Amino acid sequence: MEAIFSRVSVRKFEDRPVEPEKIEKILRAAMAAPSAKNQQPWEFYVVTNRETLLQLSKATPYSMCVKNTPQALVLAARKEGLNAPEFRDIDLAIATENILLEIETLGLGAVMIGIAPIAASMEKVRVAVSIPDSLDPFTIVPFGYPAKRKDWEDRYDEKRVHWIK
What we know:
The protein is an alpha+beta fold. The chain has a single domain, classed as NADH Oxidase (3-Layer(aba) Sandwich). It is 32% helix and 20% strand. The strands form 2 sheets. Strands 2, 3, 4, 5 and 6 form a 5-stranded antiparallel β-sheet that branches. The chain has a two-stranded antiparallel sheet with strand order 1-7. 33% of the residues are buried.
């Protein structure tokens, strides 16, 4: 639970790659996410290529930090063969949260950059990573060793809690 209460969005990273065994732990955490009817609609791209990271940094006005990370994950969602297609994006969002929490647990930092459902951004990511038409790009998660980290902020607001008794 500590990772939930310490995780912050990190956009500046040290210029050193994350070890492969840590990346595998991150991917295992992603694939441990619950999924509607166990459909597991996700595919993961681990991007370390400098030119590809630069292309990804241009996918949205908010993805510029990708150009300065040693690696990023791109999550994509299958379009076909799904048991509950209406829950596909929720499944991907849960997997992304698992990724962010495992990254925090490992002493790393990350930020989630939303791609779907913005068609222009999805196409830029598709081209940059060579994602086939059978998949929809969903999000980019640049991650690594934090070069700069802001303090955690308590966002609890009791006015948003509604008790039905």
